[in-house]
Each structure stands twice: as C-alpha cells, then as structure tokens.
Fold this sequence. Notes:
This protein has an eight-stranded antiparallel beta sheet, sandwiched between helices. By secondary structure, it is an alpha+beta fold. The longest helix is centred in the middle third of the chain and has 16 residues, at about 70-85. The chain has one domain (about 50-190). Mean pLDDT is about 80; it is low at about 1-35. The chain has helices spanning about 10-15, 70-85, 125-130, 180-190; strands at about 55, 60-65, 100-105, 115-120, 140-145, 150-160, 165-170, 175.
Amino acid sequence: MLVLVLSTLAPAAALAASDAGGSSPSSGASSGRTFEGIEPLFYLDSKRRPYIEPFHKTDSEEFFICRGTIGEWYRRLNTQDFNKLAARDGLPEVSGSTCTLQLISSQTGKKLPIIAIQMFPSSSAMRNCVLSNNCPEARQIIVYLRKRTMYRSFIISDAKKRVHRQYCLDNQSEVIAETSCWKHFEENAEEKPH
Length: 194
C-alpha cells in the first residue's frame, strides 16, 4: 500500500517540519514533494481518504481512528498545542492517544472533505461525542489551507466550566487570532483596501 501525503498539504508539511530558524523549503520543490525521512501529517489518498474504513459514519461525517491516519509526530504536536491552549482556562489535558480523524463533507471548491482532528480527555468522552453527538469537552482542530500554507483552527470547550474558545494557529504553533482561521482571514481581507 502506497502512503501518500495529502498533495495540497505537502508544502505545509515541509514548512512545518523545517527548522525553527525560519528556513523555507527549496523553491524548486514540486507541490507533491516532502523531505525524505519525515513522516507525513496524514496518511490519505489523493481524494483525502484514509486507507482504512471509518469506525462511525453519518450523512455528513466519517470518523477514523488516529493510528494509521495521522502521523505520530503531528499527533504529538497537536496534543501539545491543545494542552497549551486548554491550560489558559484550567481545562483537562488530553493525552493524544484517544483521538479521531474526522472527514466532513464539503460542498465548496473541489468538494474534497474537510479534515478535522478530535482529541478527547477519555475514551468515554470519545464514545459520547462521536456516537451520541454529545460533546461537553470538545477538542477539535479544523485544517485550513490558505495560499499553500496550512493553518489550524482549534476549538476548545467545556460545558461544565462554560468555556468555548477558538484559536487560529500558524504552522509554527503560534496563535495568530482568538477566532477560527477562516473568520480571521475573512475579516482581515475586508480591512485591506484594494
């Protein structure tokens, strides 16, 4: 079985994996190329489909286990980012071991599914959220592509503590807005005179 990096994310994967010194990938690299030896962000085919069957499916969403669909280094990075953001409100940490890759049907653009990652503080929280759509402790990342760069919208909520936060992180894990990425870029595009 051939493991492919999501072709539109390949430049972002190379950028995210480059050193912290800010060096950029070679300008001659093609959009489907990543650095040798670096594990991909996702294990998906050209249609953004994992190579395994979903463990749960609805009319508009499919859920897959993380193992075999998300690169281990990328899962650890997202776990660290979730815990850093959750600590701001004193919310429980996630270990990253209880998570799902979520594909959400899209009616825009190429009609490829939207990629999201959900992490949970416990396996019971995962069962309640995925199977019953009852998510009192939601931790979700929605991948957002803009100008060949990948951004991540983090949604963190806790119903008991009445917390609901959204953050937009760049590919260096820096918070660039305290709202979703699509909203951040939409609002900033309107402010610029053309």
